């Protein structure tokens, strides 16, 4: 970046392309269309498809007589392996279609990187035009082929058919051994969809205890089952399962997770209360307890402050109306809020910052950072000052910050503190280089000048002289120092 | 979108309609695959028949001349967190489709459990369908499958090549990006396609961000000069200019001002968040020095409530590069995180631990000597002891799926072995990159790309045993070569890289660079484009 810095700056400052604007409606329109087309290329598959041998999806909501256009017969296997299931009859009246002729598009042009316009289009087409045989699973069957074949399939055949998305009855697998064989076959195929399909069947046809017992020693299947229960929201069975497996921590977390679905704060609070005794890890137990206490506090504070605000008697609420409710906010946000609206309250109230700090064992660092941000926002500089002032046993006061004064300066600057205030804190930065950098950046002239003097760095002071306004107090001060005979400059 | 939760929502609509006496027919189209679980949900909710379910086997979206996406962002969470293998068949189908189009793949390599399963299932598909690929000349010489959990580190780093940076800043969706008013310098947003057809973008996409300014301003000057030529033209020349050159110039101008706007906006945002210091911390983590300093940097990030995703990302980076956090740090960072961003993130931490992204070192677990013994049996700490017990008690029956998921990352050892942190004398010249590390300012060669490079060089995993062991992947690194080699030398230069669980633009840029250096051409197939924020959001239990 250094190399061209000069160029760049000049460039960024000067041109910004305001000089020549050829904004052309057509250009933008066509571009919009172009992007839209590409993004919607999904739909293009449908729209561009004017071959009649494909059915279309009906979006009108009328009874649709066909399976969508994209689902095609698996021509290759239909002859040799007829099958069916009663259930399908009702909703499909779908007849064999001729597969579309193989596309003449070549994808290789795509990969060889030719950027012929519309190559995306052709790729899309190519993808939808390739013989469907290979990847479009078969759903519908010619009517004549519905017969009951449910006895014919071995576990491995069944699993293979399921994998191809075919409907396949599992009812004949009645003995536990058969069921487990089916499950193991599914697992060995690695196809999660099939594993879940078998699990749905097992869930329906086995007692909970047997199912759990068998899953416990089949980790892949168990994972799928847990995910399936999570997705379908079968909380009760999931909890039973974790209990059976003695996975207590997951049990607790799963239960706790439910609070996210409860909107009403009172109800949420009550629910969290039921979570407190659950077998979390020791660490998480404390967090859940804190969660409950926090929400409890927030409910009290919220009710109180809403009342204060609507009464209109309290100055701080009139000057700075609340932007949002404090309910369900994180602890740090709550602390900020307390420091903003309730800073001076005695420790006895729920809303006092000190009370929050003690209750939740907020570390000093975090507390100071948050209080600083809140008080600086209100431009309460005395409070800021007090935050960092400590007295030692002899009664001397000293400034101390657990977060490093450069951070303090940064936060003050963000809240547009006046230079006088900034200056005091820049001076407290220990590392001289950091101090000088900060002071220069924030235009704390006195700090820069004094630091240069202390460093006996004449050259830097001279350089700085050119940066201050001509005839200003700062310039005078610099000149006075430069002319002083007391200082033994190092350069 | 084949997600039961979403399906349940639409079912609520159907049932509401029914209650109100409105009887209608509904159609749900699931892509790329309809799951048995979905149909079961329909049946259970009593709307089977009212709602018919179709499937659109749409598996590949070409995002660019060398990039195919399956657009399955949910793949990452489903597999790497939940252990659900539902998408493996989808991947196998996609491979099958590609091999139908391009002939067989003569050389196959892969690493990772998911890679192995997908590959096996794909082979099975090929066997079942007496495919017409047999006897065809292969067009793609090599295919490489890689699981995302082989390399979380790369995906967790801040991106600094232009395309990656645009993705991190504005989020590229399906190959296009929404540039807001701050970029377009007008009052409207603009949806822009980002691919090789955008001439300006194509030239800067793989460049380190620091080069982009120079390039764009040079380009702007050239453009200005070309416009200026019209002064002093006679009428005939002007006619020529307008009819032949103007349109191209205007197009270029439009693109140029867009990308300049994007750069400005990126610069503004990055300066605000103190990007320099952030990058410095990341590099320190990658190299493994000043760990204390980095830890307190992260702590401060959390305390100041800087974005929750960013804080989480840094914690994960610290955890993976250090083989887990020391318990004291883990506790204190977690507590502060919950205080800053909300206690419900308890659930997020549990997820991250399960996925192996953010773990706690077991006491006395810091020495590499212990590594072997520990990683053999103990998958991960106390949370999973129950499984281990189960495995030990009946080892024969267990098809132990997830021991690979929560294993130690061994990043430091791998990094040393593969030389991921280049030794640099003097300044790394980002204008003329010398290796793939340029995508991370010369500080780090992406692990995923290095693995691919090494395997392609050897045409096998030979000599990489130690690395494979450190990756906890001894059983899942494979090579498969065709016996008769009919592949033309041209096709042997073409390599399909399959990322399972997502890849980042930085990785794509790095491999494009490798391709240029070694005379390969890479094509990428990914389950989705990802970046650190997407990974973290996928693990987050709390919706923002």
UniProtKB/TrEMBL annotation, chain A:
This is Spermatogenesis-defective protein 39 homolog. Residues 68-100, 121-142 are annotated as: Disordered. The keyword Coiled coil does not apply. Its main location: cytoplasm. It is found in: Cytoplasmic vesicle; Early endosome; Late endosome. It comes from Cricetulus griseus (Chinese hamster). GO terms for molecular function: protein-containing complex binding. GO terms for biological process: collagen fibril organization; collagen metabolic process; endosome to lysosome transport; intracellular protein transport; post-translational protein modification. Residues 176-275, 356-469 form the Vps16 C-terminal domain. Keywords: Cytoplasmic vesicle, Endosome. One of its GO terms (cellular component) is Golgi apparatus. Residues 68-80 have a biased composition (Polar residues).
UniProtKB/TrEMBL annotation, chain B:
One of its GO terms (biological process) is vesicle-mediated transport. Pfam families: Sec1. Keywords: Protein transport, Transport. It is found in: Cytoplasmic vesicle, Clathrin-coated vesicle; Late endosome membrane; Lysosome membrane. One of its GO terms (cellular component) is late endosome membrane. It is a peripheral membrane protein. PANTHER family: VESICLE PROTEIN SORTING-ASSOCIATED. Belongs to the STXBP/unc-18/SEC1 family. This is Vacuolar protein sorting-associated protein 33B isoform X3.
């Amino acid at each position: 970046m250094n190399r061209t810095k000069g160029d760049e700056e000049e460039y960024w400052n000067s041109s910004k392309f305001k000089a020549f604007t050829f904004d052309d409606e057509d250009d933008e329109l066509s571009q919009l269309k172009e992007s839209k087309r590409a993004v919607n290329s999904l739909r293009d598959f449908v729209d561009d498809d004017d071959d009649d041998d494909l059915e279309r999806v009906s979006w009108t909501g009328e009874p649709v007589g066909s399976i969508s256009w994209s689902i095609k017969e698996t021509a290759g296997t239909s002859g040799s392996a007829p099958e069916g299931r009663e259930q399908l009859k009702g909703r499909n009246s779908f007849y064999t279609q001729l597969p579309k002729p193989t596309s003449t598009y070549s994808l290789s042009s795509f990969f060889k990187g030719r950027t012929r316009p519309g190559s995306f289009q052709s790729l899309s087409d190519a993808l939808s035009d390739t013989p469907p045989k290979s990847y479009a699973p078969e759903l519908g069957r010619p009517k004549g082929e519905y017969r009951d074949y449910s006895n014919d399939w071995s576990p491995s055949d069944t699993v293979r058919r399921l994998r191809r998305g075919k409907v396949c009855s599992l009812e004949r697998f009645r003995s536990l051994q058969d069921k487990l064989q089916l499950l193991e076959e599914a697992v060995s195929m690695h196809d999660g969809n099939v594993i879940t399909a078998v699990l749905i069947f097992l869930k329906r046809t086995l007692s909970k205890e047997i199912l759990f017992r068998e899953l416990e020693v089949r980790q892949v299947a168990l994972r799928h089952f847990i995910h399936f229960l999570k997705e379908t929201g079968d909380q009760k069975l999931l909890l039973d399962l974790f209990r059976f497996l003695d996975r207590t921590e997951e049990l607790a977390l799963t239960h706790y997770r439910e609070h996210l679905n409860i909107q009403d704060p009172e109800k949420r609070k009550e629910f969290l209360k039921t979570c407190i005794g659950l077998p979390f890890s020791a660490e998480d137990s404390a967090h859940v307890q804190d969660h409950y206490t926090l929400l409890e506090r927030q409910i009290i504070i919220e009710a109180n402050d809403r009342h204060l605000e609507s009464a209109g008697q309290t100055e701080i609420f009139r000057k700075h109306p609340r932007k949002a409710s404090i309910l369900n906010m994180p602890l740090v946000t709550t602390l900020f809020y307390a420091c903003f609206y309730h800073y001076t309250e005695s420790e006895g109230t729920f809303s006092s910052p000190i009370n929050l700090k003690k209750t939740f064992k907020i570390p000093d660092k975090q507390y100071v950072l948050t209080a600083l941000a809140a008080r600086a926002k209100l431009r309460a500089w005395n409070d800021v000052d007090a935050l960092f002032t400590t007295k030692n046993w002899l009664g001397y006061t000293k400034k101390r910050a657990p977060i490093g004064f450069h951070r303090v300066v940064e936060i003050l600057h963000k809240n547009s503190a006046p230079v006088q205030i900034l200056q005091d804190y820049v001076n407290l930065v220990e590392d001289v280089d950091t101090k000088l950098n900060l002071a220069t950046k924030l235009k704390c002239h006195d700090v820069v000048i004094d630091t240069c003097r202390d460093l006996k760095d004449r050259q830097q002071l001279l350089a700085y002289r050119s940066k201050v306004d001509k005839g200003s107090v700062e310039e005078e001060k610099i000149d006075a120092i430069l002319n002083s005979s007391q200082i033994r400059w190092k350069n | 979108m084949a997600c039961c939760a979403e399906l349940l929502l639409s079912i609520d609509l159907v049932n509401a309609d029914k209650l109100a006496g409105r009887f209608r027919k509904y159609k749900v189209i699931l892509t790329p695959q309809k799951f048995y679980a979905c149909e079961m949900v329909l049946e259970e909710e009593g709307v089977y028949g009212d709602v018919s379910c179709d499937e659109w086997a749409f598996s590949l979206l070409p995002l660019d001349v060398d990039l195919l996406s399956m657009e399955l962002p949910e793949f990452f969470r489903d597999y790497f967190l939940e252990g659900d293998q539902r998408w493996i068949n989808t991947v196998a189908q996609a491979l099958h489709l590609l091999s139908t189009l391009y002939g067989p793949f003569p050389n196959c390599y892969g690493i990772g459990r998911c890679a192995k399963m997908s590959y096996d299932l794909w082979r099975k598909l090929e066997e079942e369908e007496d495919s017409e690929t047999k006897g065809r000349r292969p067009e793609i010489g090599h295919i490489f499958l890689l699981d995302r959990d082989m390399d979380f580190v790369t995906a967790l780093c801040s991106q600094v090549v232009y395309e990656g940076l645009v993705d991190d800043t504005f989020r590229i969706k399906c190959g296009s990006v929404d540039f807001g008013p701050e970029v377009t310098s007008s009052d409207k947003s603009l949806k822009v396609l980002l691919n090789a057809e955008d001439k300006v973008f194509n030239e800067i996409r793989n460049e380190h961000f620091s080069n982009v300014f120079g390039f764009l301003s040079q380009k702007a000057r050239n453009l200005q000069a070309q416009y200026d030529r019209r002064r002093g033209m006679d009428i005939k020349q002007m006619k020529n200019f307008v009819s032949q050159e103007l349109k191209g110039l205007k197009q270029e101008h439009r693109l140029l001002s867009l990308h300049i706007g994007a750069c400005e906006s990126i610069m503004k945002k990055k300066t605000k968040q103190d990007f320099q210091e952030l990058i410095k911390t990341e590099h320190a983590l990658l190299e493994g020095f000043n760990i204390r300093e980095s830890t307190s940097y992260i702590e401060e990030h959390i305390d100041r409530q800087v974005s929750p995703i960013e804080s989480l990302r840094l914690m994960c980076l610290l955890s993976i590069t250090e083989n887990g956090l020391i318990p004291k740090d883990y506790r204190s960072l977690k507590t502060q995180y919950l205080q800053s961003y909300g206690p419900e993130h308890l659930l997020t931490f549990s997820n991250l631990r399960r996925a192996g992204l953010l773990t706690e070192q077991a006491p006395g677990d810091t020495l590499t000597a212990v590594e072997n013994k520990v990683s053999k049996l103990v998958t991960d700490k106390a949370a999973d002891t129950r499984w281990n017990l189960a495995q030990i008690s009946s080892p024969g029956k267990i098809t132990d799926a997830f021991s690979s998921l929560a294993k130690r990352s061994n990043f430091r050892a791998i990094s040393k072995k593969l030389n991921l942190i280049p030794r640099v004398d003097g300044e790394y010249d980002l204008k003329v990159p010398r290796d793939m590390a340029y995508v991370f300012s010369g500080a780090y060669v992406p692990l995923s790309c290095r693995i691919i490079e090494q395997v392609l060089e050897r045409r096998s995993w030979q000599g990489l045993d130690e690395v494979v062991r450190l990756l906890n992947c001894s059983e899942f690194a494979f090579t498969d070569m065709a016996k008769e080699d009919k592949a033309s030398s041209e096709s042997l230069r073409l390599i399909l890289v399959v990322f399972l669980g997502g890849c980042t633009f930085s990785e794509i840029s790095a491999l494009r660079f490798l391709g240029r250096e070694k005379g390969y051409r890479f094509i990428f197939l990914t389950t989705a484009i990802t970046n650190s924020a997407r990974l973290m959001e996928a693990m987050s239990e709390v919706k923002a």
